[in-house]
Design goal:
Blueprint (H helix, E strand, L loop, with lengths): L21 E2 L3 H31 L2 H24 L32 H12 L1 E3 L6 E3 L3
Parallel strand pairs: 1-3
Antiparallel strand pairs: 2-3
């Protein structure tokens, strides 16, 4: 005789909790500081490239371009330092774009050749999300 009831696989009573990304209240300033840090890296590359070219050829134009790259690097680093002083994590109050010498959280995002701050900048500019390197809290830049 066929059975009228056939049980399906048992389902858990509670769904696993997923830690949703939080919105950072100063996301526009984070994007500005991240862009300034990217520009400073480009300025450093410009300086190194034209400094080597100046050494090889001795053209004064290459010297001026190397000097412009050094100025761009210094200006962007200084401005990013000033703008990022008060950008803190809303949970642990650790600085988002400054590295301290304390231990980092195991969930902090880091790409192999880059530092934690550089990895945070790359993650912000490419994906629009980042993790606090001190408490591991995920953040998003969009509301």
């Amino acid at each position: 005789m066929p059975t009228a009831f056939q049980a399906s696989e048992p389902q858990p009573l509670e769904q696993p909790r997923v830690r949703r990304s939080r919105h950072h209240p100063r996301s526009a300033r984070l994007l500005v500081v991240s862009s300034l840090l990217l520009l400073s890296w480009l300025g450093l590359g410009l300086f190194l490239g034209y400094a080597v070219s100046l050494w090889r050829t001795g053209t004064s134009l290459h010297g001026w371009l190397a000097l412009a790259g050094l100025f761009l690097f210094t200006f962007c680093r200084g401005l990013s330092f000033i703008l990022s002083r008060h950008l803190n994590c809303t949970l642990c109050h650790g600085p988002v774009l400054h590295e301290k010498r304390c231990h980092k959280h195991p969930d902090a995002y880091r790409m192999a050749p880059l530092s934690y701050r550089s990895s945070t900048v790359v993650s912000m500019l490419s994906k629009g999300v980042f993790r606090c390197m001190y408490c591991g809290t995920p953040y998003r830049l969009k509301k």
